[in-house]
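Reply to dn_fold:

You asked what the input looked like. This is it:
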Amino acid sequence: MPKLSYRLPHYDGAIIRLLREIKDGLDKTHLVLGQIQKISVVHGGTTRQVSEPSIVDTEMRRFSSLVTANSEWICKTEVSPFVDLVFGLWEELSKDAEKYLFQTVGKTSEAVGNVHDAHGQDFWDAQIEALKKLPIRFDKDGNHNIRFYSGPRETRGAREIVPPPEQQRRLDKVFRAKREEYDAQKRTRRLS
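and this is what came back:
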């Protein structure tokens, strides 16, 4: 007598594809992860982030989580518990991915010298000093599209307020200087 199998490989494959599509869609709504271009890779091991002045290689990471689905949900095709399960899974995995992203950015920033110790400075002064160190690109309309990300302890609500007038003048001055520097580099590159 043939052995009965309760495995549903086509169903399992469809669920995996569905979960990936849901994750990709939710990632696009995430404040940080939504800004990152995804590139599929077919290798494991390390990725070189920086070659000089110091080498920074990072390990590729697999993020996973153990979830338990109640078989009754599946049999009764209850959507709500499944949605809760998938969204909870995404939240957990995205926190891990965001944490790893910032660790990698931190290592990379240190390696190229773009780290600013903001200890003892207020939020806006720290941003101004950090901007002075960064190479900034501008689009054809003159927009820089710079975004700052920091933890809740560092910002203390500063994201929701505008900088005081003196700090706004200093920010504008830094951006003007960076724009002039960028334009000068573009002219030099064209002449070469």
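The first strand starts at residue 46 and ends at 50.
Hope that clears it up.
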